[in-house]
């Protein structure tokens, strides 16, 4: 990426100016007040504004990048060093632009322009605004910067079926959908020149590892770890990029429950790389400062149910206060079912829905949809509820909600502590009509960020995932 064309200075002067901006201007900006979510009930999350604060100067997130070990691996090749320097400059400029966005007034924002190469019939001029964002202006700027410069290199190594493919149906479908979009769509974000990339994608599927390498009922995940270990060995031997940062600018993406186990196959992948996973359980090693929470989207037969696609008319009356149906998995659902199964006409809680009843009709007819964790923290119900415009009620522990670095989940969902499950009806009934209307408006507004499109569209789930990766990448510096 070049320095913007409008820049009237030669590169050296630009550099001096940039360092001046970094040292003098940004120091001040850092002192500005940003919305803080300290005390948020949503477990762990790193909001965009807090990430921001860490952008400049010392590398706090990836201490490894400064370790002596890394210095030994430092570039010896001059041209390559220069290239990295240039990439880092464009990232520094993006960080600076984001800091400025945080201090601008609303009026100034309207002048932001969409990169001229963006083609998307639908939402070319979408401007994030409203309560669903932690800081809409900062997110908008960050997103536009991403569109302008962000480049991903997909390693060509590895073979089908486990590499370069993933499931596009059923509960882990986001794995395949992301991978295919990255490899075959998403032209603007992909580069074939690894020296021009900001991040490197390891395009394997943990779901396919389980399908092809795992012995059913053996509960032995060693073959998965071996695959991952071998894959990293191959790319780190054939290409210079992994060793340069010990994988800090590399990412994997997987929705399968065992993704964290598989990632243990390489010590640095686990502890240093960006792991994009549905299983975002902080007490199982998910680290929100470097890892990304991936929404689970259940595509029966590969598509979203047409019932969920037809938008609800606003004034339809929803007959039930709340709905849940699902198996008795994991630590939270037994509590929910114990207290509410067949207990109350307003809170419709089923273990398995009788054959003559329709799951989505219940969602469409309920004001709130209960989304308890199962065996793992993530639940496809959250996205289904959003599609059905049914306000999600999050019942989980240790779960980092998807995109919580930019989205204000409080504006479109309700978080109920597991210990408050017995009081569920009181809690939901106490939400006034007015509050409920706002939550529902929030759900409608946030839907676009959870929507899968083929090909992908601006601000949809694919782009939100990329944006989460972009934010993690902004936090590291190669030195
Ligand atoms: C935005 O545009 C308005 C009118 O076109 C102009 O007055 C204002 O100075 C611009 N703001 C910035 C930051 O460029
Ligand atoms: C990266 O490091 C590993 C282990 O130290 C080494 O085997 C490999 O050859 C290195 N890769 C490159 C491209 O130098
Ligand atoms: C991650 O780092 C911790 C602390 O250094 C270490 O104990 C752990 O074994 C590492 N995890 C993996 C999977 O290598
Ligand atoms: C419900 O909404 C539709 C369109 O959204 C409108 O035509 C209709 O009049 C509304 N009905 C009531 C009872 O408000
Ligand atoms: C999250 O991880 C902890 C620690 O391993 C585990 O006890 C808990 O059951 C997990 N949560 C879910 C919903 O799987």
Q: What can you see in these coordinates?
A:
The protein has 479 residues and is of the alpha/beta class. Helix content is 39%, strand content 9%. Among the domains are: 152-300 and 456-474, no CATH class; 307-450, Glycogen Phosphorylase B (Rossmann fold, 3-Layer(aba) Sandwich). The strands form two sheets. It has a five-stranded parallel sheet with strand order 1-2-3-4-5. Helix 1 packs across helix 4 and helix 4 (78-103) runs antiparallel to helix 6 (136-149). The radius of gyration is 23 Å and the shape is globular.
Q: Rg, please?
A: 23 Å
Output the structural class: alpha/beta
Biggest sheet: strand arrangement: 1-2-3-4-5
> How does the overall form come out from the CA principal axes?
globular
Number of helices: 19
Bound molecules: 2-acetamido-2-deoxy-beta-D-glucopyranose
Percent of residues in β-strands: 5-15%
């Amino acid at each position: 990426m070049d320095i913007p064309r409008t820049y009237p200075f030669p590169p050296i002067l630009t550099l001096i100016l940039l360092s001046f901006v970094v040292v003098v201007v940004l120091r001040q900006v850092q002192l500005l007040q940003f919305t803080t979510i300290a005390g948020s009930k949503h477990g762990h999350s790193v909001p965009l504004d807090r990430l921001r604060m860490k952008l400049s100067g010392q590398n706090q997130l990836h201490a490894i990048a400064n370790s002596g070990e890394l210095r030994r691996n430092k570039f010896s090749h001059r041209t390559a060093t220069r290239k990295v320097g240039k990439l880092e400059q464009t990232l520094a400029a993006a960080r600076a632009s984001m800091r400025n966005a945080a201090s601008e007034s609303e009026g100034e924002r309207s002048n932001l322009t969409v990169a001229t190469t963006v083609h998307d019939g639908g939402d070319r001029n979408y401007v994030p605004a409203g309560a669903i964002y932690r800081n809409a202006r900062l997110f908008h700027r960050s997103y536009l910067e991403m569109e302008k410069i962000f480049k991903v290199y997909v390693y060509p190594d590895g073979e089908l079926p486990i590499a370069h493919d993933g499931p596009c149906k059923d509960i882990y479908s986001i794995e395949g959908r992301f991978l295919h979009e990255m490899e075959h769509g998403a032209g603007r974000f992909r580069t074939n020149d690894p020296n021009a990339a900001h991040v490197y994608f390891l395009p394997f599927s943990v779901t396919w590892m389980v399908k092809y390498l795992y012995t059913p009922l053996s509960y032995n995940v060693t073959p998965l770890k071996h695959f991952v270990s071998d894959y990293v060995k191959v790319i780190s031997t054939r290409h210079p990029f992994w060793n340069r940062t010990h994988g800090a600018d590399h990412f994997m993406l997987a929705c399968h429950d065992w993704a964290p186990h598989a990632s243990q196959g390489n010590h640095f992948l686990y502890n240093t790389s960006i792991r994009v996973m549905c299983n975002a359980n902080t007490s199982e090693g998910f680290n929100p400062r470097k890892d990304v929470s991936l929404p689970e989207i259940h595509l029966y037969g590969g598509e979203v149910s047409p019932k969920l696609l037809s938008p609800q008319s606003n004034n339809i009356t929803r007959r039930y206060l709340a709905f849940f149906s699902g198996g008795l998995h994991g630590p939270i659902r037994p509590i929910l079912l114990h207290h509410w199964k067949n207990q109350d006409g307003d809170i419709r809680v089923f273990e398995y829905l009788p054959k003559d009843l329709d799951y989505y009709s219940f969602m469409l007819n309920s004001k709130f949809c209960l989304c308890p964790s199962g065996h793992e923290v993530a639940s496809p119900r959250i996205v289904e509820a959003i599609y059905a415009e049914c306000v999600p009620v999050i019942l989980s522990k240790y779960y980092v909600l998807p995109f919580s670095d930019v989205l204000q989940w409080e504006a479109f969902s309700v978080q109920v502590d597991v210990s408050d499950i017995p009081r569920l009806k009181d809690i939901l009934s106490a939400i006034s009509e007015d509050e409920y209307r706002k939550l529902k408006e929030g759900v409608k507004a946030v839907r676009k960020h959870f929507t899968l499109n083929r090909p992908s569209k601006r601000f949809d789930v694919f782009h939100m995932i990329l944006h989460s990766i972009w934010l993690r990448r902004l936090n590291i510096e190669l030195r």
